[in-house]
C-alpha cells in the first residue's frame, strides 16, 4: 500500500477526477454562457422599451364596407368595481359596462335635449312635479320578464331604498317621492318639488331599468338583467366581465345609428389598471380597444397605422381646484384671486399633457349646456405682478427667508391634501407645477399625503383643507348646483368643496333647477359661472378628455352624451 | 406522549396564539385608521351617499356598538371559523378568498419552484469557480435590485407586446403564467443562489470534503450528496423570507399583468377599508406562514441529525 505517496502526489497536482459534468473541463464555456445571458438581458431591455413602436402590419382598411355580424370585442378598461348593480355603484367602470346591459327611460340626444327610449313619450305636469311616461310595447328583459310600468316603479324604488346603499344613483333623483303604475304601460312619477334635471338623471346608466324578477332575488345572488343590446354572462372579479348579444333587442334609443340586435356576438371588458400594460395590449393586438390611452402615448398611437385614437371631451365640471373660502387666508377674496393669478394653467397643461387636454377657463366644460363663454372674463388669469399687488394689498407684504409671504408673523401657507389613491392623469405632477408657481409669488402650498379615511373624515367632512381638486362628469349644467349650492357640502352628499355660502348663488341654481323656462335657466347658470370666477372660489384647470384607442378593425363605435362608448352598432372588420 | 407529538402540540398552540395576535392587530389597525367606516362602505370618496344610507350601514354592520363589543363579536366569529361578510361585495369572505386563492397559489407556487430550481442550478454550477461565480453574482445582484414592477414591464414589452410569444390578456392557460412566474422568481433566485453558493463553498472547504474526495467520490457526488446538505440549512431558514417576498410580489405582479388573485383582493379591500376581507386575508397569511415554518422545522430535523438529538 503506498497510500501516503499517492495522496502526497495528488495534493500537489490538480485534482484529476473530472468525470463529473458539474465540474466542467472548460469553465470558459460556462462564462460564455453567462455572458450570453447578460446579452439576452440587454436585448430584452431594448426590445421591451421600443415595444409598440413596431409598425402594425395590418393595413387600415379605410373602405367602410358593410357591417359584419359576429366576433367578440375585448375592451380593456382601467379601474375595477365592487358591484354590477348600477343603483349601488358609483364607479365609472360600472356605468360603462351597465350601459350595454340596461336601457334608460329616455335618451340624452344633445347638451340639453332628450328623446324617447324605453318611454316612447312623456308629459310633465304644469307644476313640474309629476312626470307621466308611456312605455314602448313588446319590450322584454333578458330573463323574459316583460317591461311594464311595475318594472319601472320597482327599479326606481330599488334605487332610493336605503337598504340598496346607493352610492350615486339615489343622489341623482333626490326629489323622487313615488312612482305609480297607471296602467300596464303608463307610469306616473311624483317628485317632492319641481326638478328639471330629472330627465337627464333618468338617461344615465345608473338609473337603467332593471328586471323586477332579478331585483327580487337576495343581494348575494344579484345578476344585472336589463333590456339592453347585450346580456350578462359572467364577472370574474378584478379580471373581466363578459356579455353576449341579446338577439331580440329592439328598444334602440332615439338617434341610434343602428336598429335591431347588435352585430357583435360578445363584448368583454378586461380590467387592466396598469397604463403601460393596457397600451401594449392594444398595440400587440391582444385587445381591440382600450380606455384611458396615456396622454404620453396618444401621439404615438395616432401615428401607428391600423389604430385610431378617439378623443371625447367630458361634459360637466372640469378638473378644477376649489378654494375653501371659509378658512384662513383664503377668506380674503384678494388672496384667492392672487392664487388664481399666480398659476400659468395654460403652460402647465400644455407641457404635461402634450396638447391632448385643453386648459380650462370656466368651471363648466365647453360641451355642457348653458356653458357661458363670456364668463371667463371674470377669471383672475395668469398675471404674477397683479398677484403680488393683490397680496401686498391684503397685508401679506413681507417675505421670510424662504421667500414666502408673512403677515403678523404667520406664513401664507395653504393645505392641499394629496389623496394618492384618487390620483390619475398625472394630476400629482400638475399639482407640483402649481406649487412651484405659487411659490414664485410667495404662497406656500403644503401637500400632505392622506389615506381615504383621513381624506373623507378629516378633510372633506372636517373641512381641514384650503384647496381640493376634483372633476365631475355629468352632461347637465345642474352640476353647478352640485358644486356651489350652500346645502350641497360634502357632508350632505354634495360637491361644494369650496364651501361656498352665497344666497345669490343658491337662488340662481335653485331657480334654474325648477323653472320650465330655458331662457331663465340659461341666465341663472351664466350668472353662477361669472360669480364663482369673480370670487375665485374655483380655479379651472383642464377639461378631462376620454382618450379611447381602437384597433382599425373596430368600426361603428359611437359615443353617447355621457361620452360612454356605445357598442350596439359596433362590428369587427377584416 | 412521544416527543415528536409533544413538539407538534406545542407548535399548534403557538400557531393559535399567532393567529389570535394577528387577528387582533388587524382589528386594531383597521379601527385606528381615521375615518368613518360607513362612508367607506358606502362607496368611498366619489360616492354621494345620503345620511339615511349611512345610518342603514351603521346599523347593519353594528358600527354603533362600543369597540370591545365589536371585538368580542369579531373574535367569537373567528373561533367558529366565520370570517364574516365583505362590506363591498355582499359575499362571505371565505367565498371571496377561496375564489381567488387558486389563481394566487398557482402563481406563487410556480414562481417558488422556478426560483429555487434556478438558484440551486446556478449555485451548484458556479460554487468554487471564482470567475464564473463573479459573473453570476453580478447577474444575481441585478435581479435582486431591480423592482418586480420593472422586470414585469420589461418582460411584457419584449415577450408579449413585441414578440407576441406570451399573451397576457384573453388567455388564462399556463402560457399566460410564464412571464409572471419569471418576474416573481428572479429576485428570489438571486438571493437564494448567493446563500446557496456561499454554503456550498464553505462546505467544499471542510475536511470532510477532502475525505470524501480521498475516498474517490466524484465531483457530482461531493456537491450533491455532501456539500448540498450542509448548504441547505441557511436556505431552509431563508425560505420563510422567500414566502413573504412572494406574497408581497404577488400584489405587484397581479397589477402589472392584470391577473386576478388575492393580491388584487387585498389592494381593493385595503383601499375600500373592507375590514372583514382584510382580516380574513391577514389571518390566512398568518396561518400559511405558521404551517410553512412548522414544515421547515420538521425538514431541519430531516436534514440535520443534530437537531433531532437536541432537546425537544
List keywords for this structure.
A: 574 residues; alpha+beta; 4-stranded antiparallel beta sheet; 17 helices; B: 312 residues; mainly alpha; MetI-like fold; signal (chain A); transmembrane (chain A); transmembrane helix (chain A); peptide transmembrane transporter activity (chain A)
The chain-level structural class of chain A is alpha+beta
Write down the CATH class of the largest domain in chain A: Alpha Beta
Low-confidence stretches of chain B: none
Give the rounded overall mean pLDDT of chain A: 86
The number of helical elements of chain A comes to 17
Overall mean pLDDT score of chain B? 83
CATH architectural designation of one domain in chain B: Orthogonal Bundle
The helicity of chain A comes to 25-40%
Name of the CATH homologous superfamily of one domain in chain B = MetI-like
Q: Rounded to an integer, what's the Rg of chain A over CA atoms?
A: 30 Å
CATH topology of one domain in chain B: MetI-like fold
Q: How would a crystallographer describe the biggest sheet of chain B?
A: none
The coarse overall form of chain A would be globular
Largest sheet of chain A: 7 strands, mixed
Structural class of chain B: mainly alpha
Summarize the structure.
By secondary structure, chain A is of the alpha+beta class. Chain A contains 17 helices and 28 strands.
Structure description:
Chain A: One of its GO terms (molecular function) is peptide transmembrane transporter activity. Chain A: Pfam families: SBP_bac_5. The complex is a heterodimer of chains A (574) and B (312). Chain A has 574 residues and is an alpha+beta fold. Chain A folds into 2 domains: 72-313 and 547-572, 3-Layer(aba) Sandwich (D-Maltodextrin-Binding Protein, domain 2); 316-543, Dipeptide-binding Protein, domain 3. Helix content of chain A is 30%, strand content 21%. In chain A, β8 (230-236) and β9 form a beta hairpin. The longest helix of chain A is centred in the first third of the chain and has 23 residues, at 27-49. Chain B has a domain at 104-311: MetI-like (MetI-like fold, Orthogonal Bundle), CATH 1.10.3720.10. Chain B has helices at 3-32, 37-41, 51-60, 67-79, 93-126, 130-145, 148-162, 178-204, 207-214, 219-256, 262-271, 275-303, 305-309. In chain B, α8 (178-204) packs antiparallel against α10 (219-256) and α11 (262-271) crosses α12. Chain B is flat, with a radius of gyration of 24 Å. Chains A and B meet through α2, β10, α8 and α14 of A and α2, α3, α5, α6 and α7 of B.
Amino acid at each position: 500500500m503506498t497510500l501516503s505517496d499517492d495522496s502526497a502526489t495528488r495534493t500537489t497536482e490538480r485534482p484529476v477526477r473530472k468525470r463529473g459534468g458539474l465540474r466542467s473541463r472548460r469553465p470558459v464555456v460556462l462564462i460564455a454562457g453567462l455572458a450570453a445571458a447578460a446579452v439576452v438581458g440587454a436585448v430584452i431591455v431594448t426590445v421591451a422599451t421600443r415595444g409598440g413602436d413596431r409598425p402594425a402590419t395590418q393595413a387600415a382598411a379605410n373602405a367602410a364596407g358593410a357591417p359584419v355580424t359576429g366576433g367578440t370585442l375585448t375592451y380593456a378598461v382601467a379601474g375595477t368595481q365592487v358591484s354590477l348593480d348600477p343603483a349601488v355603484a358609483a364607479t365609472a367602470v360600472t356605468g360603462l359596462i351597465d350601459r350595454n346591459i340596461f336601457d334608460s327611460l329616455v335618451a340624452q340626444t344633445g347638451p340639453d335635449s332628450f328623446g324617447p327610449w324605453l318611454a316612447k313619450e312623456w308629459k310633465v305636469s304644469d307644476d313640474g312635479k309629476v312626470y307621466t311616461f308611456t312605455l314602448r310595447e313588446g319590450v322584454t328583459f333578458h330573463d323574459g320578464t316583460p317591461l311594464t310600468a311595475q318594472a319601472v316603479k320597482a327599479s326606481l324604488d330599488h334605487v332610493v331604498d336605503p337598504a340598496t346603499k346607493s352610492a350615486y344613483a339615489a343622489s341623482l333623483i333626490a326629489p323622487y317621492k313615488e312612482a305609480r303604475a297607471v296602467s300596464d304601460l303608463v307610469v306616473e312619477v311624483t317628485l317632492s318639488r319641481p326638478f328639471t334635471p330629472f330627465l337627464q338623471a333618468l338617461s344615465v346608466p345608473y338609473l337603467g331599468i332593471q328586471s323586477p324578477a332579478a331585483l327580487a332575488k337576495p343581494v348575494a345572488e344579484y345578476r344585472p338583467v336589463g333590456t339592453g343590446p347585450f346580456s350578462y354572462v359572467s364577472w370574474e372579479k378584478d379580471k373581466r366581465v363578459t356579455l353576449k348579444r341579446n338577439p331580440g333587442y329592439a328598444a334602440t334609443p332615439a338617434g341610434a345609428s343602428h336598429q335591431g340586435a347588435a352585430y357583435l356576438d360578445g363584448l368583454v371588458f378586461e380590467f387592466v389598471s396598469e397604463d403601460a400594460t393596457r397600451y401594449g395590449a392594444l398595440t400587440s393586438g391582444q385587445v381591440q380597444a382600450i380606455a384611458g390611452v396615456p396622454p404620453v402615448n396618444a401621439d404615438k398611437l395616432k401615428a401607428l397605422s391600423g389604430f385610431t385614437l378617439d378623443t371625447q371631451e367630458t361634459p360637466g365640471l372640469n378638473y378644477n381646484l376649489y378654494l375653501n373660502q371659509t378658512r384662513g387666508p383664503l377668506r380674503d377674496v384678494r388672496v384667492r384671486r392672487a392664487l388664481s393669478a399666480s398659476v400659468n394653467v395654460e403652460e402647465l397643461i400644455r407641457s404635461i399633457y402634450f396638447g391632448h387636454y385643453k386648459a380650462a377657463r370656466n368651471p363648466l366644460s365647453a360641451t355642457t349646456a348653458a356653458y357661458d363663454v363670456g364668463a371667463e372674463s371674470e377669471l383672475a388669469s395668469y398675471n404674477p405682478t397683479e398677484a403680488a399687488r393683490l397680496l401686498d394689498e391684503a397685508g401679506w407684504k413681507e417675505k421670510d427667508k424662504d421667500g414666502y409671504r408673512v403677515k403678523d408673523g404667520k406664513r401664507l401657507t395653504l393645505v392641499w391634501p394629496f389623496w394618492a389613491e384618487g390620483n390619475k392623469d398625472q394630476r400629482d405632477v400638475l399639482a407640483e407645477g402649481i406649487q412651484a408657481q405659487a411659490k414664485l409669488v410667495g404662497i406656500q402650498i403644503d401637500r400632505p399625503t392622506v389615506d381615504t379615511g383621513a381624506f373623507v373624515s378629516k378633510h372633506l367632512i372636517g373641512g381641514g383643507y384650503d384647496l381640493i381638486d376634483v372633476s365631475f362628469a355629468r352632461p347637465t349644467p345642474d352640476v353647478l348646483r352640485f358644486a356651489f349650492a350652500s346645502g350641497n357640502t360634502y357632508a350632505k352628499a354634495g360637491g361644494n368643496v369650496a364651501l361656498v355660502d352665497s344666497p345669490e348663488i343658491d337662488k340662481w341654481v335653485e331657480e334654474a333647477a325648477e323653472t320650465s323656462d330655458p331662457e331663465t335657466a340659461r341666465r341663472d347658470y351664466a350668472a353662477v359661472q361669472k360669480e364663482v370666477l369673480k370670487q375665485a372660489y374655483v380655479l379651472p384647470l383642464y377639461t378631462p378628455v376620454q382618450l379611447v384607442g381602437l384597433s382599425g378593425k373596430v368600426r361603428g363605435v359611437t359615443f353617447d352624451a355621457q361620452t360612454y362608448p356605445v357598442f350596439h352598432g359596433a362590428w369587427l372588420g377584416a | 406522549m412521544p416527543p415528536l407529538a409533544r413538539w407538534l402540540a406545542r407548535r399548534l398552540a403557538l400557531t393559535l396564539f399567532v393567529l389570535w395576535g394577528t387577528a387582533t392587530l388587524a382589528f386594531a389597525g383597521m379601527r385606528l385608521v381615521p375615518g368613518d367606516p360607513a362612508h367607506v362602505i358606502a362607496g368611498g370618496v366619489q360616492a354621494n351617499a345620503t345620511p339615511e344610507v349611512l345610518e342603514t350601514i351603521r346599523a347593519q354592520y353594528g358600527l354603533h356598538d362600543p369597540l370591545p363589543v365589536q371585538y368580542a363579536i369579531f373574535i367569537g366569529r373567528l373561533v367558529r371559523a366565520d370570517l364574516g361578510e365583505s362590506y363591498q361585495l355582499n359575499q362571505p369572505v371565505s367565498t371571496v378568498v377561496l375564489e381567488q386563492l387558486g389563481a394566487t397559489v398557482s402563481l406563487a407556487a410556480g414562481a417558488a419552484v422556478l426560483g429555487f430550481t434556478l438558484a440551486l442550478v446556478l449555485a451548484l454550477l458556479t460554487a468554487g469557480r471564482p470567475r464564473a461565480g463573479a459573473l453570476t453574482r453580478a447577474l444575481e445582484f441585478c435581479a435582486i435590485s431591480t423592482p418586480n414592477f420593472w422586470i414585469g414591464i420589461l418582460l411584457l414589452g419584449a415577450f408579449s407586446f413585441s414578440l407576441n410569444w406570451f399573451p397576457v390578456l384573453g388567455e388564462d392557460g399556463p402560457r399566460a403564467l410564464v412571464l409572471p412566474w419569471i418576474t416573481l422568481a428572479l429576485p428570489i433566485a438571486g438571493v437564494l443562489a448567493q446563500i446557496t453558493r456561499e454554503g456550498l463553498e464553505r462546505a467544499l472547504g471542510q475536511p470532510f470534503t477532502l475525505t470524501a474526495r480521498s475516498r474517490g467520490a466524484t465531483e457530482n457526488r461531493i456537491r450533491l450528496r455532501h456539500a448540498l446538505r450542509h448548504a441547505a440549512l441557511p436556505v431552509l431558514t431563508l425560505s420563510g423570507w422567500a414566502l413573504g417576498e412572494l406574497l408581497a410580489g404577488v400584489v405587484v405582479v397581479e397589477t402589472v399583468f392584470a391577473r386576478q388573485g388575492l393580491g388584487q383582493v387585498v389592494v381593493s379591500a385595503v383601499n375600500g377599508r373592507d375590514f372583514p376581507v382584510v382580516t380574513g386575508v391577514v389571518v390566512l397569511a398568518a396561518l400559511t406562514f405558521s404551517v410553512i415554518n412548522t414544515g421547515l422545522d420538521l425538514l431541519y430535523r430531516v436534514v440535520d441529525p443534530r437537531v433531532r438529538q437536541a432537546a425537544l
